[in-house]
Automatic annotation (TrEMBL):
Pfam families: ADH_N. Keywords: Oxidoreductase. One of its GO terms (molecular function) is oxidoreductase activity, acting on NAD(P)H. Gene3D superfamilies: Medium-chain alcohol dehydrogenases, catalytic domain, NAD(P)-binding Rossmann-like Domain. InterPro entries: ADH-like_N, ER, GroES-like_sf, NAD(P)-bd_dom_sf, Trans-enoyl_RdTase-like. The keyword Zinc does not apply. The keyword Transmembrane helix does not apply. SUPFAM superfamilies: GroES-like (SSF50129), NAD(P)-binding Rossmann-fold domains (SSF51735). Belongs to the zinc-containing alcohol dehydrogenase family. This is Enoyl reductase (ER) domain-containing protein. It comes from the Eukaryota. Residues 14-296 form the Enoyl reductase (ER) domain.
Amino acid sequence: MTITPNKSTALYANEVGKIVLHDLPAPEPQEGEVLIKVLYSGVNLSDIRTLQFFGLRNYALGGEFCGRVLETPNLADTPFKAGDLIAGVVIGGINRASRHATHQEYISIPASWAFKVPENVPPSAAAGLGIVVIASAKRHEFLKQLGATQCFDYHDENVVDKFKTALRETKGTIWGFDAFGSVANPVSQDVLASVIPPHDKVRPATVLLSPHDGFEITMGGRNFDIDFDLPDGTRLFFPKDLEAADRMWRAVRWVLEHYGTENVPTPARVAEGSGKDAIQELYKMSEMGNFGKVLLKHPLK
């Protein structure tokens, strides 16, 4: 599959931070990298929130993908061959190279960031495996299919009391996950902490890089260093953790092997349309306006 792209159409924050459809130079694979034609990229809360929080400019967007491997001179040095369907999660950070950002037509990434997609998994699903679902009452039956034993309606005026009552009956560890990641109106970590009653074993976590006391940070990948300079001058550095990365890959492999059987696929919607439509999908996701995963189909136009 010999294709020599001359450009890569991408979702890009321009010189004033506005997201536009922009033609980047075609990526040039570095040593150990794989050139990929992106079929689908996954939309995430962090697409917009990272952009706004750090005030990023001249920055290509996107953190996960599924696509086809293209022929390159150094491909034999990787585990993949031309035509393979692969998916993965890429490094974040304000200094990320544009060729690694996934909301574009072509990317070039280290082979270790990707995995081969088996035939039983649709390409669009592979671009968004392992999501967390936040749902209203009408979705509770689906959540129970995933294994939830109790579901709560966040519109219920007594939901906090009901939540605390259920947690007080817990004899094991209380695991709390702040998947919203808001820093104001409301502060989501404070909201989560407020509904957890006193308990011997509590393990709360957040998607934010600035955890409150007692909270742990969650990250989408640990097979690379993660480096952030916060607006207040604080520098956050998380060295790669290959042991944690191996646990993540084992979980991904389990999902791939059991997709559609023991693993119940979570809802996913493929967005096909113009670049303007794709940009609207990013903003809708940032406002928590979706149920399940949203995938952008490439190329964007």
